[in-house]
Design goal:
Layout: H1 2-23, E1 52-56, H2 60-76, E2 81-86, H3 89-99, E3 106-110, H4 116-126, E4 130-134, H5 140-148, E5 153-158, H6 162-169, H7 172-180, E6 184-187, H8 190-198, E7 204-206, H9 218-231, E8 236-242, H10 246-255, H11 259-262, E9 266-271, H12 277-285, E10 291-294, E11 308-312, H13 319-325, E12 328-331, H14 344-348, E13 353-355, H15 363-371, E14 375-377, H16 381-393, H17 395-411, H18 415-427
Parallel strand pairs: 1-2, 1-4, 2-3, 4-5, 5-6, 6-7, 8-9, 8-12, 9-11, 10-11, 12-13, 13-14
Helix pairs in contact: 2-3, 2-18, 4-5, 5-7, 9-13
Length: 428
């Protein structure tokens, strides 16, 4: 099965390269460091050639979630460096932003595509002491090569939805071999642990989600407060991490409401993927009655004009600032059957959370937040808008939901220390 998988990968590489180059039109980072994706590296020098702890965080969310774990590991193993790998350009940029202060201890690279010889070149060059994979990133050939080169593999902050389990069963032979190669699995929830065991993983522990331990950066909190001063006393609804198709639903719901009924409400829309910023701007422009301002064109000293109904969050790395500036946060990816995005960041800064019907990627944390009164599930975009307006009209309920959300986030902290304890047993 793995031979067939590797053959498909090899045949697909020219098309993958073409797609990479095309994507680089919108995101230039995809046209940089291309050789790394094919197993060719030159990062190591005399100053940073030290034992490496390898953490793979595919994109932005995984990279941010890894921050408390990485900081703890580098504190506990001061003679080691960090090798941080990604698959997306935005993930790499986020990693540089978060960890560049480690200087020569910090090495970044793209993970090579999952063919055996590329994975082997990667391991021979960097010689990591351990492979720490974030959340769901299990690549069969890379795991097989780690076993071959005696690099222990740990899957941490691990999650697996029932839907992903069913999909994985289609390639059971391939994935069972990969699961057997995992030395350790640190799962987010009991349900995730059960599904990972059914997937074939052994030595599975429940440690909780690392995202509960991510502290809001002080600079982002300050920036959010500055934006709030620019916005003024207007109620602010944040639509965070929206996915394709959701913005159209939100805009349609807005257009269907008497604008006088909305009062001076400000909607902040932050698309999940930066390559969609311009497309979402075009969608909003099709509703001229909903005045739009792009965050990238807003000076820090400017007051936000009262005619602006929608602020488009077309910047990267400022999510905590958006959460700080809002009154109520809707978490995207949940209006359509996309599985939802994580509500933990919103809860951490004490914001009432609205969430759509589709949250299978983060089922447990969503249900827990709803159970304690920190989040409210809505059926569609119209219901989301009505719920937000109802919260703005009831300041006491809005404050109580925010406090419940923050209490929920604090209650679930501690995954970092539990995960480090498990990894330390492997590292010695």
């Amino acid at each position: 099965m793995r031979f067939f998988y590797s053959t498909v990968w090899s045949l697909a590489l020219p098309f993958v390269l073409l797609k990479l180059w095309r994507r680089g039109r919108a995101e230039p980072g995809y046209r940089q460091h291309i050789a790394e994706r094919f197993g060719f590296y030159r990062q190591l020098t005399g100053s940073n050639h030290r034992p490496l702890l390898w953490v793979h965080a595919v994109s932005v969310g995984e990279t941010r979630a890894a921050q408390p774990l990485i900081d703890a590991l580098l504190a506990d193993f001061p003679d080691h460096g960090l090798l941080l790998t990604h698959m997306t350009a935005t993930g790499r940029a986020t990693g540089q932003q978060l960890f560049a202060h480690y200087g020569a201890r910090f090495v970044q690279s793209y993970l090579p595509y999952d063919t055996g010889w590329m994975a082997a070149r990667f391991l021979r060059y960097f010689k990591p002491r351990i492979s720490i994979l974030m959340e769901t990133e299990v690549w069969p050939n890379m795991v097989a090569q780690c076993v071959r080169y005696r690099v222990p593999v740990a899957l941490v902050n691990a999650r697996l939805s029932e839907r992903s389990l069913r999909r994985g069963k289609r390639f059971e032979g391939l994935m069972l071999e990969a699961a057997a190669g995992l030395k350790l699995v640190a799962a987010q929830t009991e349900a995730d642990a059960g599904r990972l065991k059914r997937f074939g993983a052994a030595n599975v522990h429940v440690t909780g989600s690392l995202k509960f331990d991510v502290a809001p950066p002080a600079a982002m909190v300050q920036r959010g407060r500055q934006w709030r001063a620019q916005i003024g006393q207007r109620p602010v609804l944040l639509c965070a991490s929206t996915r394709e198709g959701e913005e159209a639903l939100i805009l349609s719901a807005l257009a269907g409401v008497d604008q006088a009924f909305l009062g001076d409400l400000l909607i902040v829309i932050v698309p999940r993927h930066p390559q969609r910023f311009d497309a979402v701007a075009e969608l909003i422009a099709a509703y001229p009655a909903l005045g739009m301002q792009r965050r990238s064109a807003l000076n820090d000293s400017d007051a936000l004009p009262a005619s602006v109904r929608i602020l488009l969050g077309d910047t990267m790395g400022e999510m905590f600032a958006y959460y700080t500036a809002c009154d109520v946060a809707f978490i995207g990816g949940s209006l359509l059957p996309l599985g939802g995005q994580n509500l933990i960041e919103a809860a951490t800064v004490g914001k009432p959370v609205l969430i759509g019907p589709h949250t299978f990627n983060f089922a447990q944390s969503t249900e827990d937040a709803i159970a304690v009164g920190g989040a409210l599930r809505v059926a569609n975009a119209g219901a989301m808008l009505r719920s937000a307006l109802a919260l703005f009209d009831d300041s006491g309920r809005c404050a109580a939901m925010g406090q419940a959300a923050q209490g929920f986030a604090r209650q679930h902290q501690g995954a970092t220390s539990r995960t480090v304890d498990l990894l330390s047993k492997i590292l010695g």
